[in-house]
């Protein structure tokens, strides 16, 4: 599964000094520490921090996991909470957990389908219903 956390930061607009530039530098360093902490969790496969090329204020932290359980357990780790939580002040509230339905691991490989693990009532079932 893919876990994606989107962030919106004040754009530094090419600045190399000033508050916005410092915020970007501190945010990137914090994301690096968060990735290092996430990388110690069972079920972690890979992770990346990326910045939008068309809008430098938009960022995304993308991690790949063995499944949703591994991702959720990782979020409960003390070191992950310590490093990831300060970044969440910049998080954008959008869906962030995605199951991979088709994947291609190399240019020479054929795309491969993966079955869905979602229950038929996943979008409607909730505690107490």
- Which CATH C-level class is it? Alpha Beta
Kindly report the CATH topology.
Alpha-Beta Plaits
The dominant shape is globular
| Helix/strand structural class | alpha+beta
Helix content: 25-40%
Q: What series of H and E elements makes up the topology?
A: EHEEHHEEE
Amount of beta strand: 15-25%
Number of structural units classed as domains? 1
Please state how the strands of the largest beta sheet are arranged side by side: 2-3-1-4
Biggest sheet overview: 4 strands, antiparallel
What is the CA-CA span between the terminal residues? 27 Å
How many β strands by DSSP? 6
CATH architecture: 2-Layer Sandwich
Average pLDDT number: 90
Uncertain stretches: none
Radius of gyration: 17 Å
- Give the helix tally: 3
What do these coordinates show?
There is one protein chain. This protein is of the alpha+beta class. It has a single domain (about 1-95), classed as Alpha-Beta Plaits (2-Layer Sandwich), CATH 3.30.70.100. Helix content is about 25%, strand content about 20%. It contains 3 helices and 6 strands. The protein has helices spanning about 20-40, 70-75, 80-85, and strands at about 1-10, 45-50, 60-65, 95-100, 100-105, 110-115. A 4-stranded antiparallel beta sheet has the order 2-3-1-4. A hairpin with a 6-residue loop joins strand 2 (about 45-50) and strand 3. The longest helix has 20 residues, at about 20-40. The chain is globular, with a radius of gyration of 17 Å. The protein starts with a strand and ends in a 16-residue tail after the last strand. The model has no long low-confidence stretch (mean pLDDT about 90).
């Amino acid at each position: 599964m893919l876990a994606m956390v989107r962030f919106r930061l004040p754009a530094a607009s090419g600045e190399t000094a000033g508050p916005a530039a410092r915020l970007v530098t501190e945010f990137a360093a914090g994301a690096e520490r968060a990735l290092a902490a996430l990388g110690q969790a069972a079920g972690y496969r890979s992770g990346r921090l990326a910045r939008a090329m068309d809008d430098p204020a938009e960022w995304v932290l993308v991690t790949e996991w063995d499944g949703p359980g591994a991702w959720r357990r990782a979020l409960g780790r003390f070191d992950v909470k310590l490093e990831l939580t300060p970044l969440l002040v910049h998080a954008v509230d959008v869906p962030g957990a995605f199951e991979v339905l088709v994947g291609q691991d190399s240019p020479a490989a054929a795309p491969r389908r993966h079955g869905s693990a979602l229950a038929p009532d996943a979008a409607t079932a909730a505690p107490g219903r």
